[in-house]
């Protein structure tokens, strides 16, 4: 039997970063996304966010491609959010997502980071945070990444 650890830190934002994830209902959204992840035989490590984006720490199954999982999370959750009535101003996820693989040694630090999103974003905007992530891990920045 294969033993694979494929830990990813993923960030998805709402379309045009609009604040459409209601604080009172965000945990219902997280539960829905958790179900999608489990259905794909992946393991959710942590999920949290604020009104315009979410962070997902996931241990990806060896049989699942990251792009396929993200397409399904965005597609299915978008349909559900629009139909549920719980997110009346939500009109979709942004076109892109951010994902970086993590060493298992960094898991605890990443869990704490995701867990404390509300406090973290009292000090730094999502846009500044995202630019910092991308500039630290990619060679080219594009404003299209935030649509």
Spans where pLDDT lies below 50 across 5 or more residues: none
**Count of DSSP H/I helices:** 5
Class computed from helices, strands and strand pairing: alpha+beta
What is the β-strand count?
4
- For this structure, the quaternary state is single chain
* Mean pLDDT score: 88
Helix content: 25-40%
Strand content: 15-25%
Question: What strand line-up does the widest sheet have?
Answer: 2-3-1-4
Rough shape?
globular
Quick structural overview:
This protein is of the alpha+beta class.
Structure description:
The protein is of the alpha+beta class. It contains 5 helices and 4 strands. Strands 2-3-1-4 form a 4-stranded antiparallel sheet, with helices on both faces. Strand 2 and strand 3 (53-59) form a beta hairpin. Helix 1 (26-39) runs antiparallel to helix 2 (66-84). The longest helix has 19 residues, at 66-84. The radius of gyration is 15 Å and the shape is globular. The model has no long low-confidence stretch (mean pLDDT 88).
List the helices and strands and how they pair.
Elements: E1 7-13, H1 26-39, E2 43-50, E3 53-59, H2 66-84, E4 98-102, H3 107-115, H4 117-120, H5 126-137
Antiparallel strand pairs: 1-3, 1-4, 2-3
Helix pairs in contact: 1-2
What attributes does this structure have?
four-stranded antiparallel sheet, alpha+beta
């Amino acid at each position: 039997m294969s033993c694979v650890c494929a830990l990813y830190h993923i960030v998805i934002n709402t379309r045009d970063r609009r604040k459409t994830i209601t604080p009172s209902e965000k945990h219902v959204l997280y539960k829905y996304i958790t179900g999608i992840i489990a259905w794909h035989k992946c393991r959710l490590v942590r999920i949290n966010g604020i009104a315009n984006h979410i962070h997902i720490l996931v241990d990806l199954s060896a049989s699942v491609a990251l792009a396929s999982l993200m397409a399904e999370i965005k597609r299915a959750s978008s349909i559900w959010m629009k139909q549920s009535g719980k997110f009346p101003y939500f009109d979709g996820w942004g076109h892109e997502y951010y994902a970086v693989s993590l060493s298992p040694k960094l898991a605890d630090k990443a869990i704490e980071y995701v867990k404390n999103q509300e406090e973290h974003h009292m000090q730094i905007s999502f846009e500044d945070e995202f630019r910092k992530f991308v500039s630290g891990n990619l060679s080219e920045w594009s404003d299209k990444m935030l649509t």
